[in-house]
Specification:
By secondary structure, the chain is an all-alpha fold. The chain contains 12 helices and 2 strands, in the order H-H-H-H-E-E-H-H-H-H-H-H-H-H.
Length: about 300
């Protein structure tokens, strides 16, 4: 059993978690043009909500993941309606919006620390035997995380391509003024998108906490930069580009850890910088990802 195949197995789990969170992040930017740096804190809040459902409520971890998804959806919609959208309507600049989202992130993180404290927590889980698959070693929970991520990506694809809501989301992301003039209720579309992206954020937060031995109030904040790297890699605002970015960034970071574990994030951002030097608009403008979108239609 080689280190390479082991790293590929770990990489698949990282890719799954990163795809959930990066796509959710990019959906928010796509319809609202908001670079939401509070996204990681929503992940953390969702993980804690799942902890309450699982540990305090005695529910299974998968029921708790549903509770985390609901928490992420509700918290994201509340933040968008009560904080971000009012600022946008006042003509706030994009840079100022980034600062607003950063302030919201600090507020949520400190609130979580004040309520939950700095201690690490873990979910109540049954003992599982590792599964050997093609040289990889994965637990049933890790395989389930990969399956959940794949199902969510497929569901999102079907929604965007074959439903009226999905078409309205794409129209709003492409040109909100034109979409509004065509009779699309863009405010409602934005709310729905933030709810969907928040649910993905919540599922990703619980999956990340589930894949670790423990988590605390800094869970999402430590993973946010990798999420941003994956989203920007595929041109932030483009869901399919973020999926590709998640695959490349997630797998490369785990493969780099074969030699030096500390290189995981270094390699991820090195790839990002190199890609942006060649294609400043992100991978989405390349023929590869455009062909990927065309084949998905």
């Amino acid at each position: 059993m080689s280190q390479l195949t082991l790293a590929i197995g770990f990489g698949l789990v990282t890719v799954a978690i990163l795809a959930l969170t990066a796509v959710g992040f990019t959906l928010q930017f796509g319809v609202s043009n908001i670079f939401n740096l509070a996204y990681g804190e929503v992940m953390t809040a969702s993980a804690f909500a799942a902890y309450l459902v699982n540990v305090k409520g005695g529910a299974s971890i998968w029921v708790a993941m549903g509770g985390g998804a609901l928490t992420g959806a509700v918290l994201s919609v509340v933040l968008s309606r009560l904080v971000f959208i009012p600022f946008l309507r006042r003509g706030t600049s994009l840079f100022t919006m980034v600062m607003v989202s950063l302030a919201v992130a600090v507020i949520i993180q400190n609130a979580l620390q004040a309520v939950a404290g700095p201690a690490f927590r873990s979910y109540t889980l049954t003992q599982e035997r590792s599964i050997h698959l093609l040289g990889m070693i994965l637990t049933p929970r890790q395989i389930a995380i990969i399956g959940v991520a794949a199902a969510c990506m497929l569901g999102l694809h079907l929604m965007l391509r074959f439903t009226r809501v999905g078409k309205a989301v794409r129209a709003t992301a492409a040109d909100p003024e034109l979409a509004r003039s065509c009779g699309i209720a863009t405010d409602r579309v934005i709310t729905i998108t933030w709810a969907v992206s928040g649910a993905l954020c919540g599922v990703g937060g619980v999956a990340l906490a589930l894949n670790l031995s423990g988590f605390n109030f800094a869970l999402g904040n430590t993973f946010l930069l990798v999420i941003v790297a994956a989203a920007v890699f595929g041109n932030v605002g483009q869901p399919y580009g973020s999926m590709v970015g998640a695959i490349v960034i997630g797998m490369a970071s785990e493969l780099a850890a074969i030699w030096v574990p500390e290189l995981k994030q270094v390699v991820a951002f090195t790839i990002l910088v190199l890609v942006l030097l060649v294609r400043p608009n992100g991978l989405w403008k390349s023929g590869f990802v455009q062909k990927l979108e065309a084949s998905a239609r």
